Structure formats: C-alpha cells, structure tokens
C-alpha cells in the first residue's frame, strides 16, 4: 500500500448552503447575515444544522470561503475530544450505513498505539479494524476517511479499482488523503534545533 497516504445587526438575513460533507457529522448549513456584524465570523451547531454568522456586506465568494473555514474549525474542535473505542465502533457502523449500505460490518474497531507507519489496518478474516492513536485530534473528515478506508477492506481486500470505486462515495476522500500526505511530508522535514537565547 505504498501509494496510499493511509498506509504509509438588524434582523439577520438567512440563506442555506451546502457544506462540504464530513460524514455522519455533516449537517445542513444556514448562513445568517447581519448588518450589525462588521468583521467577525462565527459558527455553532444548532440541532442537526450548522449556523454561520457573517457580516451582511460579504460577497458570495467570501461567504463560501468562510463557510468552509468555519466548518473545518468546528470539526477540528470537535475531534479534539477523543472518541472511545465504543464510540469509534458506532461511528464506523454509521459510516458503513451511509456509504456502503451497511455491508461492511466489523467485529471490532479500536485505537492502537503500535501503528507508527500506518494510519489504520484491517484484518478482513477477523473483521477487526485498528486506527493509529496519531489520528486523535485530526479533523473529523480525516478520521472518517481512514475508517471508511478500512471498512472498504472488509468488502474488497486489496487496493484495486473496485476498492477505490467504493471510496469515491465519500466526497472528502481526496482532501483527507492530501491532509495525511501533508502530515507525512511534515514529519520527514529536518527538525532544526531550537535557537539559543543569547
């Protein structure tokens, strides 16, 4: 699996927009524009949707950019709360339902600390999935991608065309792979010694 980064003011105006999907946590996005709001942008979860508050004067392009930024920020904040193994297994079950019609059914899904060269692994004969603890704290969509990658191995063991066709269903596959490639590249950079104080 060498080529795969996984294994190596007035009343607010409202508008709805479609977010980049981030798996089961993905929600509808409601943008609220306010004439009172001058510069700041903020976002929060409200039930099954995400509300993004922006200044009324923002262009459509700025709105789209800020929606993406705020969704990523919320996802990063939420993923700092480490999921336990049972929550991880439930997340895998939901992802399988959403993207694979529930066909991928792992017998166990857990975090492990002995995977330093892989992000995840799967033993199809046992139905077990293990994720590296190094993923903890990464954005939610990245963890979802790794889970989906390993779930796909329960259906297709290798990395042939059928395997990648399964992962095409997840809209953030390329983004997640790019994120993981960036982490790997950053780890390979020479670490300069800290500057000494004179």
From TrEMBL:
Biased composition (Low complexity): 15-29
Positions of the UniProt region annotated as Disordered: 1-34
Superkingdom to which the source organism belongs: Bacteria
Listed Pfam families: YgjP-like
Residue span(s) of domain YgjP-like metallopeptidase: 87-180
Entries under PANTHER family matching the protein: UNCHARACTERIZED PROTEIN YGJP, UTP PYROPHOSPHATASE
Protein name: M48 family metallopeptidase
Organism of provenance: Streptomyces spectabilis
